[in-house]
Structures are given as C-alpha cells and as structure tokens.
Write a structure and sequence with these properties.
By secondary structure, the protein is an alpha/beta fold. The protein has eleven helices and eight strands. The protein has helices spanning 13-24, 38-55, 61-70, 77-81, 95-106, 162-174, 191-207, 213-223, 230-237, 239-251, 260-268; strands spanning 5-9, 28-32, 71-74, 86-89, 114-117, 137-142, 151-155, 178-182.
C-alpha cells in the first residue's frame, strides 16, 4: 500500500503536530477541522514553528518552503480527505464525536483509503460499524508532543487487515518514529496500560492524603528518574483528556477512579493544564 497523501482530521495540539511531522518528512498533508477559527490558528502555528526551525538552524529556508508547499489547512472535509491514502483522526476522546466523524468520512474517502484513529485508549473495533470496509481501520497512537516523541503504537483489531497494519507501521518509520505493531487490540494499548498502573497509585496517594500532586511528581522524577511525573504529564496532555477517559471508565461500569472529583472540578474551572495556563501547576 503506497501512502503518499495524508489527511489529518483535527487541528488541535496533537493533530497539527502529526500533520507537520508528516509534511516535514516528505508527505503531502491536508489538515481538516470544522471548528471556527481553528484552521487559521493551525496556519499561524505552522508559520511560527517553521520560522523557529530556521532560526535554530534545524531546517534551511528551502526545506521550510518545501514543507509549506506540502502542508494545507482547511474546513472542507471532502477537499482534505477525498484523495488521501491515509486519514488520521485526532479529535476529542469522545466516542460519539468520533463515530459521527467516521460515518461522514466513509461517504467521502476512497474505498482503498486507510483510516487510523489516534485515540489514546479506544480500540478501533469500537468504530468498525461506521465503515463499509472496516479492514482498512486501525489505531495509530502518537505521543505528545508528536513532533518530538518517537514512540507510536499501531494496533490491529481482528477486523484490520495485515496489509493495513504493516502499511501504517512502515509509514510511522518513514516520518522518523519508532513504532510498535500490536497484532491484538486491548484498550489502552501498551504504554498507557503500563503507566496506568503508576498513575492509579499516584492518584490513590493524593486522594487519600498521603502526598500532594507535586510530591508524587518529585518521587517519580527524582526517585525513579521519570522525565515527567504523572500530574505534570496530565497538565501536558490536558486535564480534559483524563476527564474524558474517566467518564468512559465509569460508563463501562467500572468504579469511579481516584481523584475523579478533583479532576472534574478542575475541568469545570477551566484549569486544563498547559494549554490554559493552569492545571496542577501554573504556567506563564
């Protein structure tokens, strides 16, 4: 399967970085986002980021010009996705929103196009009913910040063809990533299931008054040599993302996670982490 043109659906923090990473590495990329003002914000961010790469000596002016020529942003789904070989979904972690998007996409994309969801915990089989041919659907989970982090999880469900899993895995390698290919899907995939155990204990310690979030992070960063503690990491990825995952957990009949009430109150107060200037920590 020859991937040449990529469409990224969702111009948020993750989507725009995935898209630009692909464009920098030679792919024609279209970013689609229907939310008012987002395409303009993505275009401005791209301009600023690439100017910074020149200033730091990381890219030449010629390389930047070539990247810009391969990178487009818009609010027309058909224009962005109709002739794409690979569509990567990177919208909010809400099942209904993803399912609605996928049903619309299936009426626009080519029959041979691959669709990959960047969901951090929802397996692609949840959405196989949204497609006439679910064999071309898989997970492709990038880690934040996607322009920097090398690790990517490609996950095949039982519905996913081997050719699709291999094609997405190879695509990730061509954009400078170090992917793994999971031949059997499980919610949370690999890294999040492993870190989930640590995060669960971290929240337990805070919920029950043993430590503050800052002290948990110190223990992980200074004692275990983690690059970032669990609460600092939540600030980076977005408190709202954690909240969405918690709500999905409860909806599946599981007990309310530790720190649920704290995180819910933070979301309602607009304290979503780095992107809003305040979460567990304050940012200038």
């Amino acid at each position: 399967m020859d991937i040449k043109k990529v469409c990224v659906v969702g111009g948020g923090l993750m989507g725009r970085q995935i898209a630009l990473c692909a464009a920098i590495n030679g792919y024609d990329v279209a970013v689609y986002d229907s939310f008012p003002g987002v395409p303009e914000k993505v275009a401005a961010w791209e301009e600023e980021y690439l100017a910074g790469r020149i200033a730091k000596g990381k890219m030449t002016e010629t390389q930047v010009a070539e990247t810009k020529a391969r990178f487009t942003v818009g609010d027309n789904m058909e224009a962005a996705a109709a002739d794409a070989d690979l569509i990567i979904e990177a919208i909010v972690e809400v099942y209904e929103a993803k399912a609605e998007l996928f049903r619309k996409l299936d009426g626009v994309i080519r029959p041979d196009a691959i669709v990959a969801t960047n969901s951090s915990f929802m397996v692609s089989s949840l959405f196989k009913g949204c497609f006439a041919d679910p064999s071309r659907l898989c997970n492709c989970h990038f880690y934040n910040p996607a322009l920097v982090m090398k690790f990517v999880e490609v996950v095949q469900g039982e519905h996913t063809s081997d050719a699709v899993g291999t094609a997405v895995y190879e695509f990730c390698k061509t954009i400078g990533k170090t992917p793994i290919l999971m031949k059997k899907e499980i919610p949370g995939f690999a890294a999040n299931r492993i870190t989930g155990v640590v995060n669960q204990e971290a929240r337990y310690l805070v919920q029950n008054g043993y430590l503050t979030p800052e002290e948990v992070d110190i223990a992980c960063e200074q004692g275990l040599n983690y690059p970032m503690g669990p609460f600092r990491l939540m600030d980076l990825t977005g408190i709202d993302l954690t909240y969405d995952m918690f709500k999905a957990t409860i909806a599946n009949g599981q007990p309310k996670p530790d720190c649920y009430d704290l995180i819910e109150s933070m979301v309602k107060a607009g304290k979503l982490g780095r992107k809003t200037g305040e979460g567990f920590y304050k940012y200038n």
